[in-house]
Automatic annotation (TrEMBL):
<keyword id="KW-0560">Oxidoreductase</keyword>
<keyword id="KW-0411">Iron-sulfur</keyword>
<keyword id="KW-0963">Cytoplasm</keyword>
<keyword id="KW-0170">Cobalt</keyword>
<keyword id="KW-0819">tRNA processing</keyword>
<dbReference type="GO" id="GO:0008616">
    <property type="term" value="P:tRNA queuosine(34) biosynthetic process"/>
</dbReference>
<dbReference type="InterPro" id="IPR017900">
    <property type="entry name" value="4Fe4S_Fe_S_CS"/>
</dbReference>
<feature type="active site" description="Proton donor">
    <location>
        <position position="151"/>
    </location>
</feature>
<keyword id="KW-0846">Cobalamin</keyword>
<keyword id="KW-0479">Metal-binding</keyword>
<feature type="binding site">
    <location>
        <position position="261"/>
    </location>
    <ligand>
        <name>[4Fe-4S] cluster 2</name>
    </ligand>
</feature>
<dbReference type="GO" id="GO:0051539">
    <property type="term" value="F:4 iron, 4 sulfur cluster binding"/>
</dbReference>
<feature type="binding site">
    <location>
        <position position="231"/>
    </location>
    <ligand>
        <name>[4Fe-4S] cluster 2</name>
    </ligand>
</feature>
<dbReference type="InterPro" id="IPR004453">
    <property type="entry name" value="QueG"/>
</dbReference>
<feature type="binding site">
    <location>
        <position position="186"/>
    </location>
    <ligand>
        <name>cob(II)alamin</name>
    </ligand>
</feature>
<keyword id="KW-0408">Iron</keyword>
<comment type="pathway">
    <text>tRNA modification; tRNA-queuosine biosynthesis.</text>
</comment>
């Protein structure tokens, strides 16, 4: 039977009169049942964000991520991704894991630091699948045209989420919420349903510059402005080829991503453990020794990172990153032996970083 519900604005889709507020309330409930901590709704227009995006790209802050230039202003024009769309449903899913204390790992140069988001299962598939279920559940109630995303298409996720009431953009450029901090993933559903929109929330960063001050490489060049070329997440994940030599000592023992700007944020004191079991640490990567990880063969890397976001960087970049971390640590027999074992690695970039690390350890030992 066709649903006929009263609506304040008289919006109708395919002859179905929508009670927008009631439908949004149901969407929020369905979202919670699927593991999302918050759901917000807003428009698709981000025209006023385009000048900032243009300036960021013109400054070259995207580094070697050429796809960002190719996508251009499409990131701010969601309607180009789904013609006819009028709303973006933004969702938030917490991931903070029950893991070895991050600061303890960062404080031990013989251990490997992996960004907390990457310790468990790859969020792309999990969040996207949940979004698909949410979109399908909405369709069962009211048929609609839609498309789902989670860091999987050119769309300004933080900008949309901040305008849908899910938080505010922090000075480190990530989304912040007073009750959840920043340890969460974002996702979106583009839809042609004319749903009522949520109001944005005010910023609560005030005069705090903790994230800017804590960045190991000075990548946050100004409040709300990140130079990806200096960001450790970019250097260890997105960058192909050699890591700039002047930045290598600043990476410390961070081998995949970096959380420093989040770890010092006062709002993350209120973050709760994520509810999703699939984000729990795997393969002991929350508390692993650098030398042990450096010994992984290509087959072991592939097997042990299967289903993890780490898998996509490949074995060579994994070794490159760990070589730098070993070079930044103490000149122990284990570190030297691990590096010497790969001094003749088949990959030229790995060989170059191993040589750098061995030279650094030799210099430190006097």
């Amino acid at each position: 039977m066709e649903t006929k519900l009263p609506t304040p604005d008289g919006a109708a889709v395919d002859g179905t009169v929508l009670d927008g507020a009631a439908l949004v309330a149901r969407i929020r409930q369905w979202g919670r049942e699927l593991g999302f901590d918050a759901v917000g709704v807003g428009g698709v227009d981000l025209a006023d964000a385009e000048p900032g995006l243009v300036a960021w790209l013109e400054a070259g802050f995207h580094g070697d991520m050429d796809y960002m230039v190719r996508h251009g202003m499409k990131r701010a024009r969601a309607a180009e991704l789904l013609p006819g769309s009028v709303r973006v449903i933004s969702v938030r899913m917490g991931y903070w894991p029950d893991a070895a204390p991050a600061m303890d790992v960062l404080g031990d140069p013989e251990r490997a630091y992996v960004s907390r988001y990457a310790l468990g299962r790859d969020y792309h598939k999990l969040v996207r699948n949940r979004l698909q279920k949410l979109a399908d559940r909405i369709s069962a109630e009211v048929p609609h045209q839609y498309r789902v995303f989670t860091d999987s298409a050119p769309i300004l996720e933080v900008e949309h989420a901040s305008r849908k009431g899910l938080g505010w953009r922090g000075k480190h450029t990530l989304l912040l919420d007073r009750t959840a901090g920043s340890w969460f993933f974002l996702g979106e559903i583009l839809t042609d349903l004319p749903l009522p929109v949520d109001a944005p929330v005010a910023s609560h960063c005030g005069r705090c510059t903790a994230c800017i001050d804590a960045c190991p490489t000075g990548a946050i060049v100004a409040p709300y402005r990140l130079d990806a070329r200096r960001c450790i997440s970019y250097l260890t994940i997105e960058l192909h080829g050699a890591i700039p030599e002047e930045l290598r000592p600043l990476l410390g023992n961070r081998i995949y991503g970096c959380d420093d700007c989040q770890l010092v944020c006062p709002w993350n004191r209120f973050a709760q453990l994520g509810r999703e079991p699939d984000f729990a640490p795997r393969q002991g990567l929350d508390d692993a020794r650098l030398a042990e990880l450096f010994a992984w063969t290509a087959a072991e890397f592939s097997e042990r990172t299967a289903g993890s976001p780490i898998h996509r960087i490949g074995h060579a970049r994994w070794l490159r990153n760990i070589a730098v971390a070993l070079g930044n640590g103490p000149a122990t027999p284990a570190a030297r032996a691990a590096l010497q074992a790969r001094a003749d690695d088949e990959d030229a970039v790995v060989r170059e970083h191993v040589a750098w690390a061995l030279a650094r350890l030799a210099a430190a030992a006097g």
